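Q: Here's a chain of 169 amino acids. Please give me its 3D structure as tokens.
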Amino acid sequence: MRTVEVTAPDGTRWGVRVVWEPRWRVMARRFGGWRSKRRDDVSPGDALSSGAEVASNVGGSGGSSGIADELVVLAVVFFALVLVAVLFWWVLLPLLLIILDGLIVLALLLASVVARVLFRRPWIVRATSTSGEATEVEVVGWRAALRRRDAIADSLRHGLSPAPEVIGL
């Protein structure tokens, strides 16, 4: 949400905004326990062996030309498999996970806004000065919170105190 910046007649700069964060800081804290732990003993993928054995027991008519053709085809197929695996692991999978993460965040945001509106949880309007002074007002309803934000900014602009009892709507 947009922060309204105002300057009081005494020169103090104030920022007034509607706070989006949850009421309980514990809910907003990132615990980090779900993150995987780094291990030094994990070696890069050994799923593909370093070399492929080709049987040299080719009968009769092909000779060394047939073996060379098979080696070239095998090398091209091996290179293509490695290229597809690398592209999947380093490009496609991260993109899919980013999209999935974005969809989850969007769904949680929509659910939280709907829950806040349905359960009529108050929005917090916070006024903070550059000197560190801060005050908060709880207002039920999104439009009422925006009106209260604008009223607090207007009262600060005219030199009034941002205290909730001074600002009455």
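Q: Can you summarize the key feature?
A: The chain has a mean pLDDT of 78.
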